[in-house]
Amino acid sequence: MSRKINNSGGTKKQEHQAKKQRQNRQITIFAVVLGVFLIVGILAALFFQSGAPVKLLPAVTIDGKGYKLCEFNYYYYAYYNSYLDEHSEFREYMFDDSTSLKDQPYDDHQSWFEYFEDQTVESMSSVLRTAALAEKEGFGLSTEAQKEIDTALEDIKSSADNAGISIDKYLENIYGSGMTEELYRKHLTYSHLAAEYSDKVKADFSFREDEIREYYEEHLPEYTFVNYERFYVKASDIDTEPTQEEKQNAFAIAQEIHDKVEKGGELKEVSSEYKDYGTYYAFDDAYYDPNFSYGEWLFSSDRKDGDLNIIDDGSGYYVMVFHSRNESSYPTASITDVCFPVDPALEDSSADDYEDKVNRLYEESCAKAEELKETWEKGDKTEKSFEALASEYESASDSDGTFENLTRDTLDDAIDKWVFDDGRKPGDCSVIYTESGFHVVYYAGEGAEAWQVKAEEDMRIEAHDKWYQNLLDTAKVKRHSYVLGFAGGEINK
Predict the structure, then answer these.
(1) Where do the domains of the chain lie, and which CATH numbers do they carry?
(2) CB-CB contact of 205 with 459 (8 Å)
């Protein structure tokens, strides 16, 4: 039930360059009689009109192996639905699903259909190639992943039964002719296998301490946050480039504010006198953003408390006051967290006794959490005994598991506050309330410095990105345009 997590984040840039194979065929027709030629032509026409190519011919060939349209559709629908979920708030501005995606431009170069086709080919290629590497290495699926696959199949079987049709027919109705339970399970397995193996690849990258330190120092702004105040004087009230006179006037106001603060005034108080000329903000724990004109000054290693400056951003002037910096120089934490979840959404919110039912759910969650803690306290009160109990309670809980090198602002605020309390010591255990339910949290002790954990994780991400890109770049992919023209079914009309 336990898992070990390093916390940080990163970005991925994915570029796909598909290499097309050319097939050279020699066709000899001089010895063929005209009657045979006509028969072949008629049969070919009937073959294509029947839709047989869509059922029999490959839609995509990857590394020499052909995949049918129904297999392509498996990945197509997965990407399509994921994309809609991710961009749900912009859905109405993207495309009209009542008309063909082939007729709607994604950008100046391709239609929405072509965009989804490109992304699907990339996704399909990466999944299948990664899964192949996993199988070659003898890497197997986790128990959790296997359970997810079995559950997915059970859900589909249930839906098919409710519809009064076989599971193969049900899957064909979704993905197209040729999709079967066996084929669906195979690609579902590939998807999970690729995801878990990819995580393993990333986790296996290791770096020396001096390499991590060097990387950290080169990217210092990314691991630093600062506390500061600013007042912005906009040179023009309209969204046009200000005139020279307008800029001079704005600078004069900024200079007045600057001088008053320099003489001992507080920027917040001084700004109140100039509220008609600009806006005041105070920032705590702000991270570096290269888009801000004052970023380089603000995050310079030379900055000290009280530093004051005026910075031109082209459209106006910032009056800046620097206060403090935190370079993630604090120890991370190791904990084990067990949550007894509560989901009010499962209850009928319109019912008269809704609040009573929800309150009872939280009461039950609290009782279970207290029971776990009390049981542990009656034993030898060790980390191992807590993890053992957590495993026993797993069926009744959402066991979040064991976290190593946990950084601040990763978990719920209440848990975060408890874990990183100055008085926290190894062996502490507490029941903590959150909106998701009651948690039993065991504190095992401190880990590495936060900056080291974050920098090392970002190095892993960069290394993994290179590995992933090479996986795409070296794939031998051939698209079969005629068959792909039928991809997406009703989505593409």
Answers:
(1) 1-50+330-457 (3.10.50.40), 63-204 (1.10.4030), 225-326 (3.10.50.40)
(2) yes
